[in-house]
Amino acid sequence: MSFATSAPSLAKAVTATFATYCTADFLSNFLQHPTQKMDYGYFNRFIGREVDQEFWGTRTQHIVGVAGCLAITDHTSQAIYSKLFKKELCFAKSPAAFELCFAKSPAAFVAHTFLFIFSGVTLYCAGDAAFNPNHKDEDRMTTFKSETYNSYVGSNTAWFEPYVPVAVSKFAGPIAGSSWFGSALLPATLAYTTVKGVGWNDWGNSGLNELEEKMNGLGGSEK
Q1: Exposed/middle/buried for 13, CB within 10 Å: 0-12, 13-18, 19+?
Q2: Angle 186-188-192 from CA coordinates, rounded to 5°
Q3: CA dist 168 → 38, 156, 178, 196 (Å)
Q4: pLDDT digits (tens, 9 = 90+) for 147-189
Q5: Which of 89, 104, 117, 92 lies closest to 169, judged by CA?
Q6: pLDDT-derived band of residue 96, with 50, 70 and 90 as boundaries?
Q7: Whole-angstrom Cα distance, residue 175 to residue 159?
Q8: Cα(181)–Cα(14) distance, rounded to whole angstroms?
Q9: Which of 95-99, 118-122, 175-179 bottoms out in mean pLDDT, i.e. has the lowest?
Q10: pLDDT at residue 98 greater than cutoff 70
Q11: CB 193 within 8 A of CB 204
């Protein structure tokens, strides 16, 4: 298959993955901060919240930036696996094939999961350290190193992601396990929750920016 014929389908797949990861990141905030108000920057004005920063340093920056990086590294990892082993990672195409599909290559799934999450989140951290105007120039490299370590710690908690569809299939049936919710959105949401929660201690009243602390009565900025 030539690049001209494969490019549209690849772009469609990456876009779908990006949308799934954006949704998963947004939903994970409710698991990590069930009673706290979040800062979505520009979008705060539509839900009656104060706007401090329009984009940088907000949950919206994280949602869009991380999802974009993960969509790229996810599909890149799949392409590398396909090129090295001359076969694609086994993603189920039908409910009946689901359990057998995972059983064929569990180690490859787990390795793929760690590598694409760690590389994707680290790519995001590099972009944030380089371009976020809230970081002082002299602190950018230190910020990148610190965030890369957090990325490594958090990514190690996502080993379970490939097993989530299997569990859903066991308890709710193969159709649920191979659905978009069971095989993509739920695993990604849970992985986002543990990666951010453990890697950045982003739980409850921890991990909040200054505006979030202010909105939740914890002090913070009085701008």
Answers
A1: middle
A2: 120
A3: 29, 22, 9, 23
A4: 999 999 999 999 999 889 889 989 999 899 889 999 999 999 9
A5: 92
A6: very low
A7: 23
A8: 17
A9: 95-99
A10: no
A11: no
| Cβ neighbours around 6 below 10 Å, total | 10
Q: Is the pLDDT of residue 220 over 90?
A: no
Q: d(Cα 23, Cα 206) in Å, to the nearest integer?
A: 22
Per the document, the length of the chain is 223
Where do the H-state alpha helices sit in 86-157?
A: 98-104, 106-131, 140-155
Q: Which two tokens stand for residue 62?
A: 């994280």
Helix (H) or strand (E) holding 74: helix 59-85
Whole-angstrom Cα distance, residue 102 to residue 186?
A: 17
Q: 154 and 121 in contact (C-beta within 8 Å)?
A: yes
Nearest-angstrom CA–CA distance, 79 and 108: 13
pTM for the full model? 0.90
* ∠ CA 43-48-50, rounded to 5°: 70
Of 3-17, 78-92, 121-135, 158-172, the least confident = 78-92
Give 190-215 pLDDT, tens digit per residue.
999 999 999 999 999 999 999 999 99
How far apart CA 30 and CA 190 sit, in angstroms, is 11
